[in-house]
Amino acid sequence: MHELPVKDGIRNYVVSFVFVYRNNFFGLLTGIIFGLLMSHAGATTYDFHAKMFLFENFQLMIVIGTAVTVAMVGVLILKRLKVRAIATGNEVDFVKKPYQKGLMVGALLFGIGWGMSASCPGTIPAMIGEGKIGAIFALIGLLIGTMAYGLLQTYLMMARRHKALNLDDENKAKLHCPDNSCDS
């Protein structure tokens, strides 16, 4: 019977664990760095959010504008260089999403929620990490809103499908009785 020494067994286990969960580790690491940067920039401070919406302090607007600019330049560079994803090795693809009617209403609701909670969805995990209890309520509201959106979308999809099936039944009936003689 062949047995590995305990030290080799532990090393093999750790290596295989890291290999299997490397994407999760990378995501956790980048999330921690992102949270630290947001905290350092003041994006996790309720007062900065309130003062931004009251146009009293422009620090967060500068941070957001800088982030948008860096992201635009970064995406442009990634597209030109045809970069591959670290986790999967596939070429990074930037697909434009089609415009949807509800985007304006959704943006309005997003802004109202942000103004009322003084926290953007991206800052909530960092706020929780800092121990800010109010962020837990914002997270609960975010989850309830997301669930409500999913339920509404499912309901609307099912209603459209039901309407289409009813129209198909009516059209079939009209094909069989074009002059409505079947009704009598």
From TrEMBL:
Which chain regions cross the lipid bilayer? 12-38, 58-78, 103-127, 133-152
Against InterPro entries, the record matches this protein to: Sulf_transp_TsuA/YedE (IPR007272)
Keywords from the UniProt entry: Membrane, Transmembrane, Transmembrane helix
Concerning Pfam families, the annotation shows: Sulf_transp (PF04143)
Give the protein's recorded name. Uncharacterized protein
